[in-house]
Known about the structure:
Keywords: Cell membrane, Ion transport, Membrane, Transmembrane, Transmembrane helix, Transport. By secondary structure, the protein is mostly helical. The protein is built from 20 helices and two strands.
Amino acid sequence: MSSSDVSRALAQPVRYRVLARYLASIGLVVAALRLPPIVLSWACGDWHFMLGQILVSAGLLLICLPVTRIWVPEGIRDNEVMVITSLSFALTALLEALPFIGEGLSGIDALFETVSGVTTTGLSTLTGLQHYSAALLFSRAWMQWYGGLGVVAFSIALLFLDRGMAARRLAMGDITDSRDILGNARGHVLKLLLIYGSLTIVSIAALWLAGLGPLSAVTHALSGISTGGFSIYDNSLAAIDGGWTRVLVCIIGMLGAVSLPLYYHLSKRGIKELVTDSEALALPLIAACVIGVLFLCLDSGTGDVITRLNQATVMGISAQTTTGFANVDVSGLSAGAKLTLITAMTMGGSLGSTAGGIKILRFLIVLRLIQLFIVRTALPTHAVLERRLRGGRLDAEEVERVLILIMIFIGTVLLSWFAFLAMGYDPLNALLEVVSACSTTGLSSGITRTALEPLLKAVLILDMLLGRVEFLAMLVFLYPRTWIKLGSKS
């Protein structure tokens, strides 16, 4: 029997009973999360939007409650975790779209908005936001907030599929069993919720004290800490008075782009934990470099030095953390500034954070591999050079996953970019739009709008979903052997 026959015989498709049981549990959580928008709709007298939210929640309860009683065997397979991850974001966005359709949005625009929300992207086809109710505007930010929490929880669950360096860094306490994915994830959820909730409360208080109104403070804090970027203003942060208030909003995004488990480790081990965390050290340094390059690229005619520095700071932090807030018209920036934003969005934030992009740790691993390749040329052929990064050993499988993910990211960007080029869009603006979607950032060159062709909206929707589940989970979802058991020949 060949190796391909062996792999075919050992391949185990997902168990539909397991998928239904855990997706139903997630559905109940989503139904409960509709309570804050429902309460706010009632308080604002937005009965139409409230009815849509109630109907969605009631439908989820009716469907999911019986399904959660299904018996499932203990343990869960790797492919089942990835399928549940992919389906949870897609189905949540689909359900969230229904109340938005009731508010007058077309089906594709409603789905675009909710996918952008739950994936914490921030691209939007909506205009005239001042005409929408406070309940709807809050609901958009609220989607990003709980989407960000789901992102972190699932990313940690996925990393527990192997015991690589990344998983060890993100562990908050002992990992009881390397194969007990759900058990390990459950043990982390409460800690993540406490950290995430505390950061959110502090962010709301900071923006309120900075002078923002209640709705503006709450929505920008929710979108900021989730690195989502939905604003209640058409021109995003440019509508907020006070340049340093805008910077404060982006600093909140920086807090969300830091690995949430790091806050736990800091509380246990103190500030010395930062010394061993490569990503935490690299994030502000990279952001500072991005700010500097943007400052040099900004046209001196846009304002004095302080104004340009403020613009560069907001845009640099927003791109690097993949938050997506903006205080300038991105379409009017120079080619150099756009390329800088594209590079920053591609790199993204830290693993275990709400940020998107390829992630800084993975770039550091690639840089380390390049360094080792150069060093090896000066060593004897029989010399053994161990691959390590900041004291952590880089396993061959972990390196392989990093390289595969980067290649898939680049391939997805190129294929999506070609679709926009075929429709006649400006190459650089189209590339920025596609990278923004794949990195779940939300900065727009003006291409994303209601009049955008439905096919291209669908491309960006797929890009946002792929970028949020980090591509590999979606590929497992699309893999035929995930769903059916193929026979083998002896």
